[in-house]
Amino acid sequence: MDTSTLVPAPVARTNDGSPPTPRRWVRLFEEGGADQRDLLGGKGANLAEMVRMGLPVPPGFTVTTEACRATTAADGTAPSELADEVRSAIAHLEQVTGLGFGDPTAPLLLSVRSGAKFSMPGMMDTVLDLGLNPETVAGLEAKTGDRWFALDAYRRLLDLFGRVVLGVPEEQLSAAATPLLERHAVTDPSGLPVEGLEELIAAYDAAIVAATGRPFPTDPWEQLDAAILAVFRSWNGNRAVTYRRMEGISDDLGTAVNVQVMVFGNAGDDSGTGVAFTRDPATGEARPVGDFLLHAQGEDVVAGTRTTEPLSHLGAVFPECEVELLEVFRRLEERYRDLCDIEFTIEHGTLYVLQTRVGKRTALAALRIAVELVDEGVIEPAEAVARFTPDQLEMLLHPRFDPAASYEPVTRGLAASPGAAAGEVVLTADAAVARAAEGVDVLLVRPQTSPEDLHGILAARGVLTSRGGLVSHAAVVARGIGKPAVCGAADLVVDPDAGTVTIGDVVIHAGDTISIDGTSGDVVVGEVAVVAPAAPPELVRLLGWADEVRELRVLTNADTPEDARAALERGAEGIGLCRTEHQFLGDRLPLVRHVILATDDADRDEAIADLYVQQRHDFVELLEAVDGLPVTVRLLDPPLHEFLPRVEQLLVADATRGLSEEEHHLLDGALAWREDDPMLGIRGVRLGLLRPEIYAVQVRALLDAAVERSAAGGDPQVRIMIPLVSAPAELAAALAAVRAVAAEVEAAAGHPLSYEVGAMIETPRAALLAGVIAEQVDFLSFGTNDLTQMTFGFSRDDVEARLLPPYLAQGILPADPFETIDVDGVGELVRTAVERIRATDPTVDISVCGEHGGDPTSVGFFSAVGFDDVSCSPFRVPVARLAAAHAELGLLGPASHDASV
Amino acid sequence: MDTSTLVPAPVARTNDGSPPTPRRWVRLFEEGGADQRDLLGGKGANLAEMVRMGLPVPPGFTVTTEACRATTAADGTAPSELADEVRSAIAHLEQVTGLGFGDPTAPLLLSVRSGAKFSMPGMMDTVLDLGLNPETVAGLEAKTGDRWFALDAYRRLLDLFGRVVLGVPEEQLSAAATPLLERHAVTDPSGLPVEGLEELIAAYDAAIVAATGRPFPTDPWEQLDAAILAVFRSWNGNRAVTYRRMEGISDDLGTAVNVQVMVFGNAGDDSGTGVAFTRDPATGEARPVGDFLLHAQGEDVVAGTRTTEPLSHLGAVFPECEVELLEVFRRLEERYRDLCDIEFTIEHGTLYVLQTRVGKRTALAALRIAVELVDEGVIEPAEAVARFTPDQLEMLLHPRFDPAASYEPVTRGLAASPGAAAGEVVLTADAAVARAAEGVDVLLVRPQTSPEDLHGILAARGVLTSRGGLVSHAAVVARGIGKPAVCGAADLVVDPDAGTVTIGDVVIHAGDTISIDGTSGDVVVGEVAVVAPAAPPELVRLLGWADEVRELRVLTNADTPEDARAALERGAEGIGLCRTEHQFLGDRLPLVRHVILATDDADRDEAIADLYVQQRHDFVELLEAVDGLPVTVRLLDPPLHEFLPRVEQLLVADATRGLSEEEHHLLDGALAWREDDPMLGIRGVRLGLLRPEIYAVQVRALLDAAVERSAAGGDPQVRIMIPLVSAPAELAAALAAVRAVAAEVEAAAGHPLSYEVGAMIETPRAALLAGVIAEQVDFLSFGTNDLTQMTFGFSRDDVEARLLPPYLAQGILPADPFETIDVDGVGELVRTAVERIRATDPTVDISVCGEHGGDPTSVGFFSAVGFDDVSCSPFRVPVARLAAAHAELGLLGPASHDASV
Fold it and tell me: Which ipTM was obtained for this model?
C-alpha cells in the first residue's frame, strides 16, 4: 500500500523556481508517479509517470482521492482549501502555457476527467473544453482563425457539461439536436456547418435552461468547481456503484479528478485523435494496433458514432508522429513490462499522449502475452501464471458454435467478446432483466449500449450491437464480465420502439431466438449448438507453470471411464467424486426397481445379485482408467423415488387406461417412497442404513473389482465415501457395514485390502460436528452444493431460476451462492469444520466435490482455509489448476458481503 | 458433590472396641450416611442413614462404587485388597449376629443387592439367601425346625444365583420348574410341598450344570465373591446402559453392592414382607399405603406373581409392627422432608426395614405432596416448584378418554400410569419396536413385563398387562417415562404364541386396535377419542410460585382469538407467533387464489382489496383478545402452492372428465408454483419480495386494525415478524416495504404508530449472520423447527415417521430433535447467534416460537443461553411456565450427545 499519501506533499518543481502555494488536496502531474495510484487514481498516477519519463503529455494536475473522500464525508461539500489550491494549480498551468483561464484573448481550456484507483470504463464522466463561454469562444476563434472549430468545441462543452455536470437527461439534449441534424442532413454534429453549430449551441442553451431552470454557467471558475464536484458525485452514482459491486471494488476508495490542458484533435485536417495498444488486445500478437480519426476528439473514437481508421494507416498521414508513437510504445512496455493502451491526440501535427494504462485484453491475448513475455525474458513464469486469471481461462474455454452444426449467418459483426450464446431477443435493458428474472435466456440487442444499459448486459447471455467498435461500451463491458458480444453489426437496423431487428429482408421480433458467436462475429437466426473449443498451445505451458506453483491437488468428478480419461488429459490427479447413482440408470433401471420393489428376501437377493455383476464391471473399467490414482466412490445418494416413475404419470394412466399389474406395483412403490421434500428426505447414509443391502452390494462390487484389478497387475486406489451424514453415529453404523463386507471380500481374496473410508460434509450439522466425525475417517469431502442449500434454506432447483436473478439484480446477494461459495454463511461453516477436523486429526484429507471445486473464487477460499484438494468436472480441471496456483500466490479469495452490511 | 469419599474412611465403631482391619473398598452401614450417595450408592447411603437413626435395619456393609469403577477399569478384575476387606466385614457381621458364614450349625445368610447413586428400578440384580449349600440348608433346617423354609430359601438362591450370577437363561430355569409345578398343580414354587422343593432344587442344579458345564458353587465365599462381581458386571449390561441413556445418567458412576444379613419374611405365618409408602404415591394423599404378603420374601411382592394385601390390613395381623412402622414413617419423613418408600420384612413378628428411599410418585401425587409440604411448613414454595418437574406436569396434562365419548370397557385393570392411548395390539417387545419403526402407534400387551421388555415399552404408546400391581415392572417403568399403563387386568388371557388376547368371549388379535386409560384402568376394544384433563386445584398455586421464580417470559403461538384466550387463561403473556396463513384458508381460499392467479394488475388489486377487509377484521378481533400484551404477527410464510389444488388431482381430472376454464387456470397456477422441495423454495420473505402485494396488504390490514383498536380505547401492541430470512439485505428490503406501508397508514391516521419489527432465525445462515441481522430489528425469534430441518437436512414430514424410530432405537440420535432441541448441532447455531445478537445490541428481544418452546429440556437450554422469552402452543403454556422456573433454578439443561461420541 502506498503510505506516502499520508506525508506532506513535496515542494513542487516550478519553472521559475519560486515556492508554490502549499497544497493538500491537489498535485501537479510532475509531483507524482505510477506508485501513487491510491492517492492520484490510476489515470493520474500514470499521467504523472509519463511526465516523469519525459513523454509528450499536456500539462495538468490531479485533485486527489483524499479530496473526494473528504467531500463525500462532508455530504458533498468540498474541503475549504480546495478552491484556492485549484486556483494555485491553474496559475501554474497559465504560467507554463502562457494562456489565461477565462482570458478571451488566449483562453486556457481544460479537460476534466475522473480517475479512480481501478479503471472503471464508461463509469465515470468526462468534460472537455472547459473554460469556454461566448467571450472565450470568440477569443479561440480569433486565436485559431477557425470559427467552426471554436463553435464545435463550445457545443461539445455544452453537451457534456449539460449531461454530466448539470444532469440534463441525454434524451432532452438529443431532442434539441435532432431537428437540426435532420434539417442539415447530417448524422453527427461534426458534420454541421458554422450556422448549424450556432443553432445547436442556442438549442443546447435553451435545453439546459428548460431542464435546470438556470442558464449554462459562463464563469470558467464556476464551471471548473462544478465539474470537479460532479466527478466526485458520480463516484456514488448508480452505474459506478453497480460496477464496483460487480468487480468487488471498495466503495471507500474515492476517485481523483484529472485537470489537463486541452489539446485539439479537431483543430483541423492536420489534427486527429486515437486509441492504441502496444500489442493486439484481441489476439495478443506483439504488434501495435488501434483506431484513429482525423479531425476529431477522443470521445468520437470511443463513442463508436463515427467509423475509425486502423492505426496501421497513421503513418500514411502523420509519418513523424507514427515514429514518435512507436518510441512511446517501446518506452511504455519497458516501463510497465506489459501491454499498455494509450489515448493520443495530434494537434497541428504535434503528438500528445493523453493517458495510458496497462491495457485490458481478451483472455486469449492475456495468455499469449504472458507466455511471450516469459520467452522475451521480461517476466518470470510465476508472474505469467499470476497475469493469466482463472476467469480469463474460463472465457478462453467458453463455448463456440459447433463447427459440425449447419447454420447460415444472417450477418456478421465484430468479434467483440468471445464465447457463443443463444437466447430470446430483448431490445431494452429493462426487458432483459425482466425476462431473465423469469428464467429465460436472453440476448440484448441494441443499436449501441451506454452505462445505462449495464443491468441489462449483466442479465443477458450476450450482447449484439449494430454500432461501435472493439473499444465501444458494449465490447469493453462484455469482455470484462466474460459474456459473448458481437458489436458493430452494421447491417442490423434495431428498432426498440417497434420491437424489431431488421437485416435486409429478415425481420426478427423481440422474443424470437437468435444465436451469436463473439469469437467469429456470426449472428444466426434460431438456436445453434455450441461446443467447447480446443485449447491454444500456450495453455499447456502456462498450466505446467501453474502446477509448479500450486499446493492444492486437483481431482475430478467423473462417473465413467470416458469422463475420467477426459479429466486426466486435462491434468486431473484422480477422481474426487464418482456418483454411483449413474450406474443405476439406463438399462440398469429395471434391476434397481426390482431391488426397491422386491416382495420378499429371495426376490430381492436375486435382483441384488444381478446388480452386483453390472456394478463390478463398471468399477473394474473405472479403476483401470484411473489406475494408480485415487478413485473416490460415493455410495448411493439420491432418494429411491428417483428410480421410479412419477406418481402423477401413473395416476393419470390409471384413470384413463388402467394400469397393468406391474405398473400397479410401480405405483405402490412410487407412492411409498414419495416425499414432500426429497432433498431433506430418505437419501444418502439414511437410505444406506434403512436399506443396507444397497450399500453392501456397492461395496462388494467395488472391492471385488479392486481385487480383480490387483490380480491383473493394476494399482487400484479405492476410497469409499458415505454421503449426507448428519450424526457421527450414523457414519459409524455405515462404516461398520462397509468393514463387514470388506472383511468378507478379504477372506475370499485371501489377503488384506487397502482402501480408505471417508464421508461427505453436506449438512450444517456435519460441519459443526466435523471434529467428531473426523475421528472415524481417512478423508472428508465437502459437498458444498447441499451445504449451500441447507445453510440458506434454498432448493437450487426451485430458487435459482426464479429467485436468484432478482436477488442478484437488487444486490440482496453479491453472487449466485451455487456458483461462488458464500463466504459469510456457508464459508463460516466450512472454516469451522476445517479447524475442528485439523484439531482432531491433522492427517485427514480435506476436499470439496461440489461444483464450487471448479470456481476460481471459491478455490481461493478453499485454499485459504487449508483444503488438501478440490474436485471438479473434467472440463473445469484446467481452471481449477490455474485457480489453485493463483490461490497459492494470494491472488484469490472472495470478500465478505453480508458480514459488512 | 460428596468429596468425603476421597479421604480415608474413619475407623469403624466395633462392638468390642478392637481396631478393625483398615478398609478402602468396603464400608459398614454404621460408618456411612445419606450424604454419601456418590460412594455408597443411594441404597447404601440410605441404609447407613437408617442405622445412624437407630431404625431396625439388619446389619450389613456396602462395597463402594469406587470398587466398581476400579473393577471396571481393570476389565472385571476386582482390586486385590477387596476379598480381604469383605472377609473382615463378614467377620464383623458374624460377631454382631453370632452366626457363621458357611457354618452348618448357625449359618449366616446374606442378601447381595446393587445400589447405584440413582435408583434404577429393575435394572440391577439381587441375590438372596447367599451362603446356603446342602450343609447349611441342613443347619438352617435344624436351627428353625422348618425343612420347607430351608428348602424354599435354597431354591430361591439357586434360581437367583443361577440367573443373575451364572447367567443361566431364565427360560431354562423356568423350563426346569414347569413340569414340577404342573405335576403339583401349583402356579408358584411357594406352593410346593417339601418333596416338590427337593425335586425343584435337583432340577435347578441340573439346569445349572447343563447351562454352564459346572455345578452350583457350594462354597459360600465363592458365592459371595461371584455375586459382588456379577453386580459390578451388570452395571454395563444392556438393560442398565439403555436405562441410563434414557435417563441421562452417566456411565462413569458405577454401582455399589450392599451385603446385608438376611431376614426372612417366609419364615412362617408369623412372618411376611411388604413395600410401603409414607404417602400415597398415586394420589399424593397424606396417608401410608403399600402392599404386603404373608409368608413371603420381598421379590414375591415386586414380581407381581402373587396377589398382595393392602397395607391397611397389616394392623389386623401384626398390630405391634404396624405401630412401629408408622413411627418409622414419621421419622423418615422428618429426616427426608418428602415421601419415602420402604421395603420391610417381619420375621417371627419382628419388624426390619430393608431399604428406604425418597419414593417415586405419579405426577398428580408429586404436585399434591409438594404443595401440601409447603402448607405443612416443611419446605419453601421454591422447593415445591423444584420438586414438581415439567415432565410430571406434562403427564398430569396427559390426555384421557373423552368423557363425552361413548364406549364400553371390555375390562378394567389397575390405573398404573396416567394418560390414555390407542394403538395396534403387539404382543412382544420386538414386535412393538418393528411396528413403531413403520410409524404405527402400538400398545404393548403382555402377561407381565420384565427388564427384557424395556425396548418394547419405549417404542409403544402404552402398556397393558394381565398380572402385577402398582409396583410391578410395567407400572414402575411406564410411570417413569410418562406413558399410560393398565396393569394387573386379570381377566386378560394373553397368548403371545397364538397372537391373541382373550377376555371372556372377546378375542383380540395382534394388529387390532384397542384403547387404554391409565388413569381409570379402562381397556376398550377399538379407538376412543381422548381429551385434555382439567388441572387439579394445587396446580394454580404451584404455577404461581413458578412465575415468581422464572425470568423467561412465556408467550403463546395462537392464530385466533379463541386460541389466544385459551393461552391467556393458562398464563401466557402475549402472542409470540400468529401464523397469518390461517387467515388465508377456509372461505378465504378463493380470495387468495384470486390474488395468486390474477391476470392483470386491476384484477389483482380487486382481489387484494377483498382480502384486506377480511384480514383487518381478523386482526381487530385478535388485538382485542390480547389487548395490552404483545401480538407478534408473522407475515405469510408457506409457499403459494399450498393454497392451490394438487397438480395430480387436476391432471387426473383433466384426463378423465376434462377441466373447466377456471380449473385450467388453477392447473396453470399449480404447475407454475409447484416446487421440488417447497420447504426450501419460494416462501417466507422470498415470497414477500417476489410478490410484494401480499406483505403489503397484510401490514396494511394489521396496522389499520391497530389504529382502529387505539381509537376504540384499546392498547394494541403490534410486532411484525419477517420469516425465513437468510440474507440481511432481504430483511432490509422487506422492512423497507413494511415501513413504506406504515408511513401511509400513519399519514391516513394523522398520528405516528407504535409497532416493533423483527425477524425469524430459521436458516443456519440467519443464525450465523444474526449479529448483522440484529442491527435492523427490535426482536428476533428462533424458528427451531425449520432450523432443525436445515441443520440436519431432515424434512420432518419425511423422516420423522420412517427414519427417526430406527435411529432412536439404535441410539444414532439421543432424542427426536423435533421434540427436544439438538444441543450439539442446532444448539451450537443458536448459542452462536445469541452471542452475536447480544454483541450487536443487548436490547434485542430474543425468543423461540418453534415447538421446542414448550419442551422442558429445550426451555432449559434456551434459558441457559440467554433467551428473553419462549412461545409455545396454548396447551403447553403451563409446562413452559414451570420449565422456565426450573431453568432458573438450574434444574434443566440437556446433555451433549454427539460431541462426546
Answer: 0.76
